[in-house]
Amino acid sequence: MRTRSRLLAAGVVAVLCVTGLAGPANAGAGQQVLRGSSVASYQGRMIDLSKSWEDAQVCAVLSRNDVRCYASTDEAAAALAGEAAKASSARGSDEPVSPMSTWHGCPDDWLCVYEHTNWGGRRLQFNDEQWHWLGDYGFVDQTSSWTNNQGGGLLGCSGSDWGALGNGAGDNRNLEDCAASSSLGSYDNQTEHVHG
């Protein structure tokens, strides 16, 4: 009986830990922020985004150590559609991959932040459920608008794939899935972290 009680208690603790860490709204000033590589691939070479984006206009963070930059939104869309096709093939799916749709240039299943209001300027995009420090990507205090194009699909928005912006002082702004903002108002150019 005591073993069963211990197992039940351990299960409850595990569930509480997972749910406490699951959503961006729960992250405060002490949030765990991933420090990724500031190095990105761009036109066949590596560049350090913390120093310069050179003439890149879009950078996609596929993982902490896999950041890819592109000279235009069209180039980014074509490359990311190719990645989606490879992933589908690796899963053994024979179904053709439909072209990625975009919203303000932000592809399906991505959260995008933009350098200027009205979704203008350089675009940095994420599609994982982690906090990222924008200094790794040369984007601290440079976010003026956003699009969260995650959680859509055939059934519409799930309401569960939120993102967040953080200013480094515990003031987080939630970014509901299937939503966008052309301006951050008083929060303009004050973002240090993003949760994709």
Verbal overview:
By secondary structure, the protein is an alpha+beta fold. Helix content is 20%, strand content 30%. It has 2 helices and 15 strands. The protein has helices spanning 2-22, 73-90, and strands at 33-34, 39-42, 45-48, 58-63, 66-70, 102-103, 106-107, 111-116, 120-126, 131-133, 145-148, 163-166, 172-175, 179-181, 193-195. The strands form 4 sheets. Strands 5-4-9-8-11-14 form a 6-stranded mixed sheet. Strands 1-10-15-12-13 form a 5-stranded mixed sheet, with no helix packed on it. Strands 2-3 form a two-stranded antiparallel ribbon. It is globular, with a radius of gyration of 18 Å. Residues 1-30 have low confidence and may be disordered.
Name the shape in a single word. Answer: globular
Broad structural category: alpha+beta
Describe the largest sheet: 6 strands, mixed
Percentage of residues assigned to helices = 10-25%
Strand-and-helix sequence, N→C?
HEEEEEHEEEEEEEEEE
Give the strand order, joined by hyphens, for the main sheet. Answer: 5-4-9-8-11-14
Task: Indicate the radius of gyration in whole angstroms.
Answer: 18 Å
Note the beta-strand portion: 25-35%
Average pLDDT number:
78
Instruction: Outline the low-pLDDT stretches.
Output: 1-30
Give me the number of helical elements.
2
Number of DSSP E strands: 15
Features:
196 residues; alpha+beta; 6-stranded mixed beta sheet; 5-stranded mixed beta sheet; 15 strands; 30% strand; globular; disordered N terminus
Q: In short, what is this structure?
A:
This protein has 196 residues and is α+β, with helices and mostly antiparallel strands. It is 20% helix and 30% strand.
